[in-house]
Backbone:
């Protein structure tokens, strides 16, 4: 039986790169979604045993293609695109695994988003909306949340 395949969005970045390394170290097969498969980071991933595929979180059809045959998907949204863009990323990314028959979605939320207390940090509740979309999706899902101490430990930890 082959190891499960996990699609990682942002695998060429810090958070996605750390996730990719952790998954590889635990024996998972990793597929990385990137806009530029020829970037130095993407080439490095490929040389490290990662399947690198071209795609864009703003192109739902590329997400579905990248998810074909994957068991699960890991993603976080890009806050630099503004609230509406981030909401769109979340909706498309949560819809794509369902259409590609993936089993699970793992969403890395923003600092201190807590749906039970309705208390959230700098993302102004967008994470809450993503979680509600996940709850309504019919998918198995997991939301990861950085620890509250992250804020006090940005540099030099």
Residues:
């Amino acid at each position: 039986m082959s190891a499960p395949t996990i699609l990682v969005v942002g695998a060429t970045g810090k958070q996605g790169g750390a996730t990719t390394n952790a998954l590889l170290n635990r024996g998972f097969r990793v597929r990385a979604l990137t806009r530029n498969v020829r970037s130095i980071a993407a080439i490095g991933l490929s040389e490290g045993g990662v399947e690198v595929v071209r795609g864009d979180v703003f192109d739902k059809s590329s997400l579905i293609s990248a998810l074909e045959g994957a068991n699960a998907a890991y993603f976080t949204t890009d806050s630099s695109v503004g609230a509406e863009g981030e909401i769109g990323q979340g909706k498309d990314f949560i819809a794509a695994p369902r259409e590609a028959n993936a089993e699970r979605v793992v969403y890395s939320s923003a600092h201190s988003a807590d749906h039970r207390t309705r208390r959230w940090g700098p993302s102004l509740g967008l994470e809450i909306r993503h979680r509600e979309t996940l709850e309504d999706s019919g998918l198995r899902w997991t939301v990861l949340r950085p620890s509250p101490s992250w804020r006090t430990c940005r540099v030099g930890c």
Remarks:
- The beta strands are 5-9, 29-34, 51-54, 72-75, 104-108, 140-144.
- The mean pLDDT is 82.
